[in-house]
Amino acid sequence: MERKLNMPSKEERHKLFGSVEPGLKVKPTEKEQMPDLQNSKKDFLFSINAVGISNVKHPIIVPSESNPKEQTTIATFKMTSTIDYDAKGTNMSRFTEQLEAYRQAGGFVLTLSNLYDFTKELATRLKQKDASIEVSFPWFYERKGPSSQLIGLNHAEAVLAVTYKEGKGFTSSAKLVCAVTTLCPCSKEISEYSAHNQRGYVSMEVTFTDSYKEETDWKATLLEAAESNASAMIHPVLKRPDEKMVTETAYENPRFVEDMVRLVAADLYELNFVQAFKVECRNEESIHLHDAIASLSYEK
Ligand SMILES: Nc1nc2c(ncn2[C@@H]2O[C@H](COP(=O)(O)OP(=O)(O)OP(=O)(O)O)[C@@H](O)[C@H]2O)c(=O)[nH]1
Predict the structure, then answer these.
(1) Is 24 among the domain residues?
(2) 225 located within any domain
(3) Using one digit for the tens of pLDDT, what is the confidence trace for 4-56?
(4) Nearest alpha carbon, ligand 1 atom 32
(5) In the chain, what are the helix, strand and coil shares in percent, each to the nearest 5?
(6) Looking at the 3D structure of the chain, how many domains does it have?
């Protein structure tokens, strides 16, 4: 039998746990009468390259060329601008104010042209000459078992970023990190039978050319660059005939991390909407506790 409680009111409970009566309050409560510290002007020595907010979680709508063609997902936003040496600070509330304005206007739809509008409007709202946005999100795509054709969902980590500069226009870039299978060429070469294989993570960062207007979906194109050069793809649903095919495909296409970054780089080199790129591959080695890594950068 539990002890019978003589339950105090909620107010009394709060006092019991340390809440006190409000003290004397003398500072203004009207916005107009409050000091505006962040807008004070003085020689603060240095201009600041980026000030703003990061780690903002917000729902977005992602249109895609492939299925699922429209998906709602949770993105992490980073939004910044520069400030001059004579400005104390930025107006932080205006970043989230603008995000909310987009939500209320029907939802934040992740297209390059929307990010162009967003950064330009953000610069105006902040009364700055520039603004940058970076949106990171899990992007989902369907994959079929090669024999059964059974469908399931995979996901990759995607990032879309835009910077607006008054008088100069926009620069835009993207990043996709996806998983593939890689089978070790050395292991295949030296062993009487079998070869070790692992899950590899391919990271592709690309700077878009000025003329790119998302005629082709960058997400699906970058994914294709990684998967089509890997030993095999990763599949959510595999029956035995599928598994046999995936295993044999990997054996027929062995890849070192070095092979992966060079082959993916060759595909990115051929994409006319890509101006510059960085490719990284990280294999979670199945015969070691450590990873194998390789990376390369190229500007066309
Ligand atoms: N500049 C600056 N602001 C901060 C910092 N930390 C918190 N804040 C924010 O200051 C914000 C309030 O400042 P403002 O956005 O300038 O608010 P305001 O001046 O009433 O808004 P406006 O009418 O748009 O100018 C709050 O959203 C806080 O989050 C910081 O390190 N620097």
Answers:
(1) no
(2) yes
(3) 999 999 999 999 999 999 999 999 999 999 888 888 889 999 999 999 999 99
(4) 89
(5) 30, 35, 35
(6) 1
**Does the C-beta of 36 come closer than 6 Å to ligand 1?**
yes
Distance 34 CA to ligand 1 centre (A): 12
Q: Phi, psi (5° rounding) for residue 99?
A: -60, -45
The pair of three-digit structure tokens given for residue 138, joined into one six-digit string: 């899990």
Bridge partners, 175 (sequence order):
159, 205
Residue 88 lies in a domain: yes
Do 219 and 112 form a contact (C-beta atoms < 8 A)?
no
- 218: in domain: yes
pLDDT at 1 over 90: no
Look-up of token digits 């960058």:
218
Q: What is the C-alpha separation between 293 and 281, in angstroms, rounded?
A: 6
Question: Which CATH number covers residue 279?
Answer: 3.10.270.10
Q: Is 90 exposed, middle or buried (0-12, 13-18, 19+ CB in 10 A)?
A: buried
**86, two tokens:** 């004579």
Centroid of ligand 1 to alpha carbon of 35 (angstroms): 12
Does the beta carbon of 66 lie inside 6 Å of ligand 1?
no
- Average model confidence (pLDDT) across the chain: 96
Backbone dihedral region for residue 167 (phi beyond 0: left; psi -120 to 50: alpha; all else: beta): left
> Whose alpha carbon is nearest atom 25 of ligand 1?
91
The residues pairing with 134 across neighbouring beta strands, listed in sequence order, are 78, 161
Task: Give pLDDT tens digits for 123-182.
Answer: 999 999 999 999 999 999 999 999 999 999 999 999 999 999 999 999 999 999 999 999
Nearest CA, atom 3, ligand 1: 92
Take atom 12 of ligand 1 and give the residue whose Cα is closest.
93
**Closest ligand 1 atom, residue 36 Cα:** 19
Atom of ligand 1 nearest to the CA of 38: 1
